[in-house]
Amino acid sequence: MVTTFEDLVGRLGAAAVAIGAAVPPRYRSDAFRAHRGSRISDEGPSPAAVVWPRSAEDVAAVARFAKTASLSIVPWGGGTGLMGGARPGLHSLVIDLRRMRRVRRIDAISRTATAEAGIVLEDLDRRLRKRRLSLGHDPWSRPRATLGGAIGTNGIGYAGYLRGTMGDQVLGLEVVLADGTIVRTRPAARSTTGLDLKRLFIGTEGTMGIVTAATLRVFPVPEREEIHAFRLRDFPAGLRCISRMYDAGLVPSAMDFEEAFPAPALPWGSDAGPPTLYLGFAGGREIVAASWRVARRYLRAVRARALPDREARDYWRTRHDIIYAHDQVSPGVTRADVFLKDVIFDYVHVALPRSKILAYRRAALAVLRRHDVRPIGFGIWTQPELVSLEVIRPVGADRSAAKLAVAEAIDEMIRRAQALGGSMEYVHGVGVKLSHLMGEELGAGLDVARRVKDALDPDRVLNPGKTGL
Ligand SMILES: Cc1cc2nc3c(=O)[nH]c(=O)nc-3n(C[C@H](O)[C@H](O)[C@H](O)COP(=O)(O)OP(=O)(O)OC[C@H]3O[C@@H](n4cnc5c(N)ncnc54)[C@H](O)[C@@H]3O)c2cc1C
């Protein structure tokens, strides 16, 4: 029984435990950094300790210890979460799962793979590619984010429409509960056996359990993948065209449609102007060729202009590069912290009924004007219902006023999306950044979520304060 830090060191080994001043500064915050619009402090306190377990049994021992020591547990994957879901408190014990990174089994015939939660998504994809298979989840953050973090946030990647969210690809989970119980759900293709237990742990940001391994649906490497870029006349014409393609049954492997606004404060260049569409199809050669034949018909109908192939190639080749901005350049300081020190830079990712997207665009731009915050881009990603909006405001003389203005604009845009029948976030989760809006998001459902939490974690050990819990 582990009841003291000495016992913990005895169980995990000295190299797997950091206590007090030995905790590296990077654990004070994930990728929810000082440049974001927020009323919350720029980073959290240093946690009481960090541990690096190697097995589900280690994690179970840590969970039991945390309860005895009155510490809360914060599961940590790649620390790339954008909402502060992995941000610790003063009395937190961070469980960094990245030493649990084994691929336990690849079943190439069944197209399934079982891997530990701390494996980096790109490493898992590389392992799969050696067997002519691929991971269906391909977020911008693939070179740094882990399987457990992607399940914890139920993220979505470039192939989100073709493959679904991370959670849609999970067949079964191994999870450690707050009391140290290890639960393994059956990784079957389908089951109608009452409550789908694994869903309790998908997208709940470690508040219900700590995922230690998962069995995933994986996919054959496509025979062909073709991506092209187009310039559309304006956003409404593009949205209409894309909607028609989806209605016709096309299933893009990539779709990214965005208009760019003039943003002089942006520390990198941006070409304001009519929107660009990056569109891709993957699969057998004939399927890809037929998809392009149909897609081009719809694109011609709105006089879309094909851009040079180089544009699409560069877009695809560099699609993960932005995540390296979140690497540390000195202890606790990332490249993004340095790069974005003079601006508040933030984004909104809402899911809306298609019929409301143009009304939302008008309303959101008006909200931004009122708060003196500039739009950078407005777009849809992977499917027509998933809307993103990036914004910026120079810090100026009063940094906290700028942060507050962006936070208020974002809250207002989120509430507008909720009022239009949408969801306030479709990709990055809730963390601490959006926790205050969960009552409006879930209504009476928030109380249901709290009762589930009470049943599974009565002492509130697991990641308190996240997702409104
Ligand atoms: C530049 C950039 C681009 C991004 N692009 C995308 C994108 O395209 N798509 C996308 O979905 N996301 C994106 N993200 C957000 C982020 O990468 C994802 O949320 C990712 O899934 C987080 O994985 P992680 O391993 O870094 O998790 P962390 O940040 O470490 O944790 C995320 C949350 O999950 C919890 N958690 C971590 N591990 C576990 C576990 N084993 N069990 C239970 N809970 C756990 C944490 O406590 C936290 O609440 C981006 C982030 C950045 C910085």
How are the SSEs ordered, and which strands pair?
Layout: H1 5-12, E1 17-19, E2 49-51, H2 56-68, E3 72-76, E4 92-96, E5 103-107, E6 112-116, H3 121-129, E7 133-134, H4 147-153, H5 160-163, E8 170-176, E9 182-184, E10 210-217, E11 219-220, E12 224-231, H6 235-247, E13 254-260, E14 273-283, H7 285-301, E15 305-306, H8 309-317, E16 328-330, E17 333-334, H9 335-339, E18 343-351, H10 357-370, E19 374-381, E20 386-394, H11 399-419, H12 438-442, H13 445-456
Parallel strand pairs: 2-4, 3-4
Antiparallel strand pairs: 1-2, 5-6, 6-10, 7-11, 8-9, 8-10, 12-14, 12-15, 13-14, 13-19, 16-17, 18-20, 19-20
Helix pairs in contact: 6-7, 10-11
The chain binds flavin-adenine dinucleotide.
The site of flavin-adenine dinucleotide (FAD) has 39 residues, from strand 3, helix 4 and strand 10.
Task: Explain how this protein is built.
The protein has 13 helices and 20 strands. A seven-stranded antiparallel beta sheet has the order 15-12-14-13-19-20-18, sandwiched between helices. It folds into three domains: 95 residues, 2-Layer Sandwich (Uridine Diphospho-n-acetylenolpyruvylglucosamine Reductase, domain 2); 118 residues, Uridine Diphospho-n-acetylenolpyruvylglucosamine Reductase, domain 3 (2-Layer Sandwich); 196 residues, Vanillyl-alcohol Oxidase, Chain A, domain 3, CATH 3.40.462. 46% of the residues are buried. Helices cover 29% and strands 23% of the residues. The mean pLDDT is 96. Helix 6 crosses helix 7 and helix 10 runs antiparallel to helix 11. The longest helix has 21 residues. Strand 5 and strand 6 form a beta hairpin. It has 469 residues and is of the alpha+beta class. Bound molecules: flavin-adenine dinucleotide (FAD). Flavin-adenine dinucleotide binds next to strand 3, helix 4 and strand 10.
